[in-house]
Amino acid sequence: MAKRMKANKRKQQKSVKVENKKLNRLVKRGKVKLKSSSPYVKSRKSEKRQQKFNSHFNRNERDESNAVDEQIQAEDVMDMLPKRELMKIWGPKRKWDENDDDASDADTLSKREQQVQKMKESVGNLATTIINHPEKNIKRLKELILLLDFKADSNAFKLSFITIQRLIAFATLEVFKDIIPNYRVVESEKRGKDDKRKLKKETKLLWDYERTLVQLYKLYIRRLERMVECIRKKSSAKSNFYFEIVPNRKALIKIATVGLKCLSELLLTHPHFNHRNTIIASIVSLAVCTKSEEISDLACETLSKLYKQDKAGDVSLEAVKATAKAIKSSAFNVDPKVLRTFLSLKIKEIKKKGAETRKDMKLVRGKLEKMSRKERKRNKEMHKLENQLLETEATENQKKKIEYHTEILNQIFYTYFRILKFNLANVDDETIKAKFKLALTPVLEGLSKFAHLINIEFFDNIIAVLHGLMKEDLLDSHQSFHCLKTVFIILTGEGSALNIDPQRFYTMLYNHITFVSFETEEETIVTMFECVDSMIVKRRKQISLKRVLAFIKRLATVALNNKRSTSLAILSLIARIMQNHKQSDILIDTDKCGNGVYLPEAEDPEFSNANASTLWELHLLRNHYQKSIRNYSAYIMNGLKNNSLVNKTPIEIFDSLKSIDLLPNL
């Protein structure tokens, strides 16, 4: 009897399943209409709600602008929020009444603390469940992201709004940092062809997980972009979500800072992952177009960190392109710190024109025609093996890196040349002129850093532009030293073959050394040492004795009117020049004095007649209150006989003694 009862139950279950299938077909065709009270209709309604919920996140085929507006609007998302958890935290929605019992400050503050604590618990539970099993609980990540869209009409909510936004944003950031893979996920559109093939169950599950992860990552980036855009004007912002809740400007800057920190952390920790272009674009726009110094400093710091840690060069190329485009669109009205981020790039080698060797196709075809079929097949196999060996030796990655670096430098130089060729004659506004002068400093610093990588075709134009800037007296001493450094880096490298007379630049350096004093910045002094080293010490065979003596005399005069560290570094520089030019001991020996009168005010060092003078400045420095300066001046006067003092370069001496200037006399 028991067996018969079981068999009858199985038959009934099978018949119910068959009837349900038939009913499904009839309902789909529209031949049958069911009552709303039936359990079948209720299940269908719940399925439709779930489909409506999921369709909100899967609108990849629609226009991007419409999708952004729909996903950003908070009112469209309110029905999809996890209401049970939010009801526990905030309670039911209600309008605020001034005569309510909860209107007192003490009650609102206590409520705020309770609600923040409850939110911490709920966010912590969601984050731990997702991190423990990300493949199973990836859909719970929607709930965590959508908590950023909730708003209420109570004072306690408004008081705790920024704290909760920060809490949810950083918690979601940590979840993504933990579950993002170490590879770039292929988008679902590119996998459309492969979807028709029969795949394993594990592969399908992995693809579904990756697709949902990328969609939720995109949703999170859009929420962060909404946080960042709240500091813009209300008319230009895409969403009014934060303007309705937080009308204060300082509070909006705090929210934007949270969003920018999350975007920066995502870019720096996972630069290989999807949608990095959108993150880079938002960070660059904040660095270039934002008036808030705190946010622009943070954005520029992120870009400089990205340039330093990027070894391949592909991410840096995207960031440099976006920055160059933003600078061009802003009509070069840019903060100098944005241009100074380019100095963090580590570029040592690029592909120059004429360097690549192309194969002669006629020779290749001739060789192939002489080969038999077997030899051709063997040749193909050998080429494949050689390419695989190149991949194992990482030569292919090196080639790509050089190509990326070449393109990066092209973008940087285009930006620099546009700024340098900006015509100030047609500009009457003094503010624009002041900003242009400030922007010149990082441009000239960048040119002096990357000058050895400039193509030889641009040498004449660059030298002409730099000479024109120095001639018009637009530059200060720091900028002028960088111009001179760039010119002589060009002339000592590939530009040595060019017919360019550097005499005018020697005259400019001779005149600008006089302005080095107590008030001169440390960077300017270091650049001056580099200029003298590249123009006199390294070009000792191409410079006349009269010019060398004039520079030694000018440096000794400047050493009398400077700090201890600067004076000692200048003395070491004089010692290096005199070691390379043995005939310069005329300035020490009083018996060997030249004819004529020394002209210290002459602009050209060739006509200053420095051989008619002596280094009487060393006698004054010999009585200096610091022992190291006394010893060094005596060392030069004795004919550079004791070599123990000349172990460091002038820049190393200056860097090691900078802190002594702040101490009392030693």
Structure keywords:
666 residues, mainly alpha, 27 helices, 62% helix, chromatin binding, coiled coil, ARM-type_fold, CCAAT-binding_factor, Nucleolar_cplx-assoc_3
Folded structure, characterized:
There is one protein chain. The protein has 666 residues and is mainly α. The protein is built from 27 helices and no strands. Among the domains are: 2-55, no CATH class; 76-89 and 110-190 and 200-339; 501-666, no CATH class. Helix 10 (249-269) packs across helix 11 (276-289), helix 18 (430-450) packs parallel to helix 20 (477-492) and helix 22 runs parallel beside helix 24. The protein has helices at 2-29, 39-55, 64-72, 83-90, 105-132, 140-146, 155-179, 201-228, 241-245, 249-269, 276-289, 293-309, 314-329, 336-340, 361-370, 373-392, 395-420, 430-450, 459-471, 477-492, 503-512, 522-537, 545-559, 564-580, 617-621, 627-637, 650-656. It is elongated and about 135 Å long. Mean pLDDT is 78; it is low at 35-43, 56-90 and 92-103. 62% of the residues lie in helices and 0% in strands.
